[in-house]
Amino acid sequence: LGDDGKLYNAKEFKEFYGKEGKDKWTKNDKYTERRLAKNNKAYTVFEFRDYYVDTWGEAGWVQEWKSAKPEERKANDGKWYTWEEFQK
């Protein structure tokens, strides 16, 4: 989440913030997308790759990521939402 309230992917974030982008990106961890691996744990894309790359290879872990269920997070209203549902 940028200071302007918009959501960015890593590349867009770097372009928006320039050399400060990496530090700001890592500090925004609570806004990072996570998906569930087959062990039912939520991982960031980098953690997910580390978890699957030895078994599935570079192309295989990407397919696993695409088909993985998104993490759900509990909102202030007590209900659970995926990131996309929460944004609405």
Secondary-structure-based class equals mainly alpha
Order of secondary-structure elements: HHEEHEEH
Work out the number of β strands. 4
Compute the CA-based radius of gyration.
14 Å
- With strands numbered from the N-terminus, the spatial order across the biggest sheet is 1-2
Overall form:
flat
Strand content: 5-15%
Per DSSP, the total helix count is: 4
**Main beta sheet strand tally, sense and closure:** 2 strands, antiparallel
Residue share in helix: 40-55%
Low-confidence regions: none
Distance linking N and C termini: 15 Å
Relevant terms:
two-stranded antiparallel ribbon, mainly alpha, 4 helices
How would you portray this structure in words?
This protein has 88 residues and is mainly alpha-helical. The protein is built from four helices and four strands; from the N terminus they run ααββαββα. A hairpin with a 5-residue loop joins strand 3 and strand 4. Helix 1 packs across helix 2 (21-27). The protein is flat. The two termini are 15 Å apart.
Give the SSE layout.
Elements lengths: L9 H8 L3 H7 L7 E2 L5 E2 L1 H23 L4 E3 L5 E3 H5 L1
Antiparallel strand pairs: 1-2, 3-4
Helix pairs in contact: 1-2
Short characterization:
The protein has four helices and four strands; from the N terminus they run H-H-E-E-H-E-E-H.
